[in-house]
Write a structure and sequence with these properties.
With 299 residues, the protein is of the alpha/beta class. It is built from 12 helices and 7 strands.
């Protein structure tokens, strides 16, 4: 059986997260937004979770956000897992574990809840990661995760590509591909989750300059980690051309540019006998026309 393709340099990701450790305080607004979406989903669920795992804890935003809230009362123990050892060492309060989302160090049926805020778009084998999560969950356990979707950074991607083509006569991948919502629903089903749900949150962020946007991406640890990333960096000519294109196409009345981020939140349950199941085709005991109180006619 062939192995899934490797798109990302995970060791470089760990290095970038280490480098970005001090930057989360300035550029953590998207992560906060993603965490809010996860907490909103959890708030509506009347369930106690004995052992919960935050797969991509980063700066511990999820643990801080639930502190003192009803969601925290639902979680007996929170484990914060993180690829970056430096970031893990800075946190306290919850159990910390240096781990890779691509190789979960948990046995089958060992967790009640798994969350992942904006850590799934940099894994090489997303189906494999979801299968590992499902196996680690106890029956009737819940997974809630988020990742950047296909509309993310469409403006920057197009401007960089066009600018590099004009200056160098060719271009290399500067921004990773992102998943689409319909594909993720199918993926949750294929990896064995029950009652899958996918929601999309489109966020528009205003910047004074494209270079400020690119600086924020570095502070977030979201700069290019593609294995086949170009070895040549972006020179001044490319950046100036890309900035001019960006201002020309995406500037508002005040001269600020807009950057789009799509945050997709997905959730699913590990199967359990107590969960509702769809009826088998042909098993209905009442006709639709009778239920609606109408007469059945011919077309």
């Amino acid at each position: 059986m062939s192995l899934p393709p490797r798109l990302f340099d995970r060791s470089l990701l760990a290095h970038r997260l280490d480098r970005a450790a001090g930057g989360f305080t300035q550029a953590h607004f998207l992560r906060e937004r993603a965490v809010e979406d996860l907490i909103e989903t959890l708030s509506a669920i009347n369930r106690q979770f004995d052992v919960a795992l935050d797969m991509a804890a980063r700066d511990g935003a999820f643990g801080r956000a639930i502190a003192g809230t009803p969601v925290a009362d639902k979680i007996d123990m929170l484990i914060e897992g993180e690829l970056s050892e430096r970031l893990s060492a800075q946190q306290s309060g919850s159990a910390r574990l240096v781990m890779d989302e691509e190789a979960l160090p948990f046995g089958d049926d060992s967790l009640n809840l798994v969350v992942n805020a904006l850590g799934l778009h940099t894994v090489n084998d997303l189906p494999g990661v979801l299968v590992q999560v499902r196996r680690a969950l106890k029956p009737d356990g819940l997974f809630i995760g988020s990742l950047f979707g296909g509309e993310t950074l469409t403006e920057l991607r197009a401007c960089l590509m066009e600018a590099e083509l004009e200056v160098r006569g060719g271009y290399g991948p500067r921004i990773a591909p992102f998943a689409e919502s319909p594909d993720l629903i199918d993926l949750l089903k294929r990896t064995g989750f029950s009652m899958p749900v996918v929601d999309s949150d489109r966020v528009s962020v205003s910047y004074e300059h494209p270079l400020r946007l690119m600086a924020d991406l570095r502070l977030m640890g979201e700069s290019n980690i593609l294995l086949k990333r170009p070895r040549k960096g972006l020179n001044r000519a490319i950046l100036e051309k890309a900035s001019a294109l960006y201002f020309g196409r995406h500037a508002d009345a005040e001269g600020r540019i807009t950057a789009t981020f799509e945050i997709i939140t997905l959730s699913g349950w590990k199967a359990h006998d107590s969960q509702q199941k769809p009826l088998r085709p042909g098993s209905a005991k009442m006709r639709l026309a009778d239920a609606l109180g109408v007469k059945e006619g011919k077309l």
